[in-house]
Specification:
The structure is a single chain. The two termini are 66 Å apart. It is built from 37 helices and 29 strands. The chain is flat.
């Protein structure tokens, strides 16, 4: 109905996409006018436009920048400024920074037509000439020493229009069409530009990237894989470099290496989504500000935005470290029990199915216990993925019998479903991807002689109440409670292991959800078919799969830092993206990211023929139909791309084609490294390529004139994917730039989508129309019905991703507070405000906690414990004054005491600093000052020169920084472990008819309150108790450089072992490698300086 209304109003008023394009067309005309003006300008004048644009932007924001600089200078000049005044100034700076961003956008809007015209004219000149000479700049000279596309000749830099990109030689021959200008405008506006395959999304990105690089705040271009990041950065770099814009790619370098830090400082930085996300997390684990790699997250442009923000967003990015645990041993111990359990249920399901078949054959299709429909439902609840069951359900009328029985027992919120499940050992809810162990199953896996409650979690609440009712002493009661809680923790973990092993055995199939390679379980992305190296299923599921497949069970790990891609990318000031398949997910893009989708028209009309789906009753009939279709198409001289959803199907089709003698190539997770080679050959006449639905994404299949004449590339889909977007991506491989082509999907009622979400009427239609084995349905109404099923899955998947985000939103609020505190501590400029807030917070906590109980004695004791303070507040004042008055009075006392302590530290250390400065000032840069509170010790590194300038005050700043970072990190690490445990525990809340998310939010809030209090107490305690260890000036430790943070023992969801020890990571895609010309160390440097290479740019090697 909604679609009908949209179509009717669209015809009258015009649809959204037409309106979007209509708004942009005047801007396109302006760009082309400016472009015509540039045709006769000199090369140097064209290149000089970049500096002119930068100057305009700088002038537009000068007033705000001057205000910010003035406030910062005021703060720096008044180190003793009142904390409240300082905080107000910092808030003013934050507001001005936001205002500056708005001003920058205003300036860019004015520059846009001219900037886009400059990029287009540059592209034209590179297309028209093999060499473009210009006056050499320092950037040109730097590039000439390393790159093959620029050469220094005297005072000139000569740019070539051919160069190496990702190991292959490319020649620039592209010029922006008007539709690409439209796409560039959409990207600049912070929207998603949906462009068909072959419409030049990589070229479109040059427009917005150049414009948004002009303010110097960084442009991040995100790609779906390492190969595309390297290829696109090297492909587009000469165009940007020619215009004075520096380009780099973070995926070339090791995390937090000097080379990666430099890559982030480039004007435009390419990289994969994971690497950008992990660098953000690593930055928030560092102890030294000069180790930070990322600056402001200003503008991100995401290529294949649906893959990144929809598909990859299902699993959070996690940095973890190993913890002591015997979990892996528990998987080994419990595996035989689960293996036995699954086998027993399999036999039971086979028995039920045999009985159901017999009863249904006799005409007994009823839903009461013992009848055919009932037995069929029991079989389905026992093992829904059982192949004999799937095959039987495709027979005429059988699926309707199952649906009738299921509907009967699901009414009244599945009130009667327990009758069906009573005889089962466990129950599988395939749509929810869950398994529930039943009492009969618990009895089976409980060994003889074992405690009958070995797998039963105790009811903690009622048992604690029972303990309290006893007449035993408090100490005995406490021991009993501790023993009970310990038993609860052990059994909860044991039951969790059982649940994950059950999932591994019943819901996860090898070569579909995962593969085993190099004796490791590796996840296969269900949308791309690519192996997700290093990524692991969460909550112990991966360990369960490892136990199932008899490979080494990796040790358990603890989360050290985590974030979802949704929350990471929402931190950017401006976000945009491009893809060929975003329209079907437009609602999700808007709801989560506030990203609007604009559909860009094709440069040439689309001529591809998208045929209606062919629907068969069984999978066997479908695969035979696919083989026959491939045979017919190859005889016509057309190349065929066969799309599959998993490794198993691709290998099955491969075997069928082998039996028919049809030559073909297979591209799936097991042959991922050959992707570029296979895709390059896929457009040859008669070529047959079997690939996952999104294989080769980001690369085009190019056709010869003979193939175009024969009808172009033929797409054969072996199954509809859960998402329409993925099917559209597969269709989009054909029909690029007006080429002919065709697409058609082959479907069977045994396919997963049709089994789980297909219309109940589909099987009825086939029965009523009397379709026999081997016959096929093809009709537009059926195709629409399939797309309706896909919409159901999309809605379900959106719900899953939204749920994941809701959980991470809780963590995100906490993460933002902690990371802000860390940042303030790391840079030190706002740390004094946070320190005073900690003082005030703890003062308020102690006053409120003790005044409510009128406990003055313990109040005094706690002040000594935390502040080393013997308060002047009398007991009479404590009882009479309000909590607010007492807090203010205590806070003033604390500040005074802390000020005196700082003076004593300076009094003790400044003479030593002066002595070292006078004797060894030329060689000593930093001083190591040891502090200890009697329990903990830490060395504080402080710059000598700065301490002399500030008369010792810099040491206090460094002391506060070291203490704050140490205590925040220690408490945050413990808190993350608690949050991990909480997320597991709350899932049991559904058994008590409670919403796990609501419970998670409430408990997480309490945990965070405890965290904030713990951080405040630990920081305050060390600051007040920490004293300098006795030290002789002659024995003072000096250190030239701050020690780098060690992140080597941490793991990410990407395989960092693939990076070389040197600068660059190996190119994982098999590409022809062309060696760059090697410059001898004693030869002249290519930059034209006249020096030997070893004395110039060779110094960097």
């Amino acid at each position: 109905m909604a679609n009908f209304v949209e179509k009717v109003f669209g015809k009258i008023f015009g649809n959204k996409h037409e309106k979007d394009i209509k708004k942009i067309l005047p801007l396109v005309d302006e760009i082309n006018v400016e472009y015509d003006k540039l045709k006769n300008v000199t090369t140097d004048e064209l290149r000089g436009k970049t500096e002119i644009f930068k100057a305009e932007i700088k002038a537009h924001v000068k007033e705000i920048e001057d205000k910010i600089a003035e406030i910062k200078a005021n703060i720096q000049a008044n180190l003793d400024m009142d904390v409240d005044d300082k905080e107000a100034l910092f808030e003013q700076i934050d507001t001005l920074i936001l205002d500056k961003d708005k001003k920058i956008e205003e300036a860019l809007e004015k520059i846009l037509p001219r900037a886009f015209a400059v990029v287009k004219e540059t592209a034209r000149r590179f297309s028209a000439s093999k060499e473009i000479p210009a006056t050499a700049t320092q950037l040109d000279k730097d590039l000439a020493a390393e790159k093959d596309f620029v050469e220094i000749r005297g005072t000139s830099a000569v740019y070539k229009n051919s160069w190496t990109a990702a190991g292959a030689e490319v020649t620039w021959n592209m010029l922006h069409y008007d539709v690409q200008l439209i796409g560039g405008v959409v990207l600049h506006e912070g929207k998603i530009s949906e462009m068909q395959t072959g419409e030049g999304k990589t070229l479109v990105s040059t427009l917005s990237a150049y414009l948004n690089a002009l303010p110097g705040l960084g442009v991040h271009i995100i790609t779906v894989n390492n190969y595309l990041a390297l290829r696109d950065s090297e492909w587009n770099a000469p165009i940007f470099n020619f215009l004075g814009i520096r380009v780099d790619c973070i995926d070339k370098y090791r995390p937090h290496s000097p080379e990666r830090i430099a890559a982030y400082k480039a004007d435009i930085t390419y990289g994969t989504n994971n690497e950008f996300g992990f660098d953000y997390l690593r930055d928030n684990m560092l102890r030294n500000a000069d180790e930070l790699v990322q600056g402001k997250l200003h503008y991100a442009m995401i290529d294949e935005v649906d893959s990144v923000l929809i598909d990859d967003a299902r699993t959070p990015l996690i940095i973890s470290g190993q913890v002591d645990s015997d979990d892996e041993q528990q998987f080994y111990e419990l595996k035989p029990r689960i293996s036995k359990l699954v086998e027993v249920q399999r036999k039971l399901a086979d028995d039920y199915l045999a009985k159901a078949k017999q009863l249904i054959k006799e005409g007994n299709t009823g839903v009461e216990p013992g009848q055919g429909g009932y037995m069929l439902l029991q079989t389905y609840r026992a093992l829904p993925k059982n192949q004999p069951l799937i095959k039987y359900l495709s027979e005429q009328g059988v699926k309707q019998i199952l649906q009738k029985a299921e509907n009967y027992y699901m009414q009244d919120q599945s009130k009667q479903m327990h009758i069906v499940d009573e005889e089962l050992y466990f129950v599988i809810e395939e749509k929810q991807n869950s398994v529930e162990l039943k009492e009969k199953g618990i009895d089976l896996i409980t060994s003889s002689g074992e405690d009958k409650d070995f797998f039963v979690v105790p009811d903690v609440g009622s048992q604690i109440a029972d303990i309290d009712k006893t007449s035993q002493g408090d100490e005995v009661k406490m021991q009993a409670k501790e023993q009970l809680l310990q038993e609860y923790a052990i059994k909860t973990e044991r039951l969790h292991t059982i649940q994950q092993l059950l999932k591994a055995y019943t819901l996860f199939e090898i070569d579909i959800e995962y593969v085993v390679m190099d004796s490791k379980v590796k996840i296969v992305d269900e949308n791309t078919g690519r192996i997700m190296d290093g990524r692991r299923f969460s909550d112990g599921l991966h360990q369960a799969l490892e136990a199932k497949e008899n490979v080494k069970v990796e040790a358990a790990s603890q989360t050290m830092a985590t974030i979802t891609l949704q929350n990471f990318f929402r931190m950017y000031h401006k976000l945009s993206g491009m893809t060929g398949t975003a329209e079907t997910e437009s609602q999700e893009f808007w709801d989560i990211y506030k990203l609007d989708v604009v559909v860009i028209p094709t440069n040439k009309p689309l001529t591809r023929e998208d045929k209606d789906d062919l629907i068969y009753r069984t999978a066997r009939e479908k695969f035979n139909g696919i083989a026959d279709e491939i045979q017919n198409l190859t005889k016509q001289g057309r190349p065929v791309l066969v799309g599959t959803t998993n490794v198993e199907v691709s290998e099955l089709i491969s075997k069928i084609l082998d039996s028919k003698g049809i030559k073909h190539q297979v591209l799936n997770a097991k042959q991922h490294q050959r992707e570029a080679d296979i895709v390059a050959e896929a457009g040859r006449a008669g070529a047959v390529t079997i690939a996952t639905n999104m294989a080769g994404r980001g690369t085009d299949i190019k056709l010869s004139p003979e193939v175009i004449a024969a009808g172009g590339l033929a797409i054969v889909g072996s199954e509809r994917h859960d998402s329409r977007r993925i099917d559209r991506q597969l269709r989009g491989r054909a029909g690029r730039q007006g080429d002919p082509g065709s697409s058609q999907f082959f479907i069977s009622l045994e396919d997963k989508l049709m089994r789980l979400f297909g219309s109940e009427n589909m099987a009825k239609w086939m029965d009523r129309l009397g379709f026999k084995e081997g016959e096929v349905i093809q009709h537009s109404m059926i195709t629409k019905n399939v797309e309706t099923a896909q919409r159901k899955v999309e809605e379900n998947n959106f719900g899953v991703r939204k749920r994941l985000l809701e959980y991470d939103d809780v963590m995100n609020m906490q993460r933002e507070v902690i990371y802000k505190k860390r940042k303030n501590a790391l840079f030190g400029d706002r740390l004094s405000v946070d320190i005073m807030d900690a003082f005030h917070g703890l003062c308020e906590e102690l006053v409120l906690g003790h005044k409510s109980r009128e406990d003055f004695e313990n109040f005094k004791i706690n002040l000594i414990i935390y502040f080393s303070l013997n308060t002047e507040i009398t007991e009479s004042e404590f009882l009479k004054k309000s909590a607010g008055e007492l807090t203010d009075q205590l806070y003033n006392e604390v500040r005074l005491v802390y000020g005196h302590k700082g003076e004593k530290i300076i009094e003790r250390t400044l003479p030593i600093f002066k002595q070292i400065h006078s004797e060894r000032g030329e060689t000593v840069k930093n001083i190591v000052v040891p502090f200890s509170d009697g329990k903990k010790a830490m060395n504080v590194l402080s710059p000598l020169e700065k301490n002399i300038e500030t008369k010792g005050k810099q040491l206090l700043v460094e002391f506060e920084k070291s203490v704050s970072l140490g205590m925040i990190d220690e408490s945050w690490k413990h808190h993350l472990r608690q949050m991990d445990d909480l997320k597991k525990e709350v899932q049991n809340a559904s058994l008590e008819q409670k919403d796990p998310l609501l419970v998670y939010k409430l408990e997480a809030f309490n945990l965070f309150k405890a965290l904030a209090s713990d951080i405040n107490r630990s920081i305050v305690s060390f600051l007040f108790k920490g004293n300098i260890a006795a030290q002789n000036p002659e024995n003072v430790q000096t250190n030239q450089v701050a020690q780098r943070t060690n992140l080597d023992n941490l793991k990410t969801s990407r395989d960092d072992n693939e990076r070389q020890n040197g600068k660059e990571r190996e190119n994982r895609v098999a590409e022809p490698v062309r060696a760059q010309p090697k410059v001898g160390r004693n030869e002249p440097c290519p930059c034209g300086s006249g020096k030997k290479y070893k004395s110039c740019h060779g110094k960097l090697d």
